[in-house]
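Team,

Forwarding the record for the chain on the shared tracking sheet. I've put the sequence and predicted structure together so nobody has to dig through attachments.
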Amino acid sequence: MKSYRKELWFNTTQRREYINITPQVQAALLESGISEGLVLVNSMHITASVFINDDESGLHADFEKWLEKLAPEKPYNQYRHNGFEDNADAHLKRQVMGREVVVAITEGKLDLGPWEQIFYGEFDGKRRKRVLVKIIGE
């Protein structure tokens, strides 16, 4: 069995963004030379997420509206965490959207459903953050 590791780096221009990273993950898979196995894609930061869903702007707007209802950014003083930082809402949003995904690799390709794409969700952006891509298989 072979193993391959790659880091993807992001520096978002907004506090919250959703970035389709499927092409970067597929590129890492091609670099790995692995044709059958599994790929783990996970955020290496506690205020960011990796998840699978549809790449549709209306849905992304719905995520934003729904997450903001669950864990509103402001007022900052509603959270006990917000003494030293002002990102408690980002921690909570990450818990809802998840830390990582695992995708099967079949015949050298990501084995995703018809509309499935891999996303990096940033909830406390405007700084450099990374995603780990770990591929194992043959």
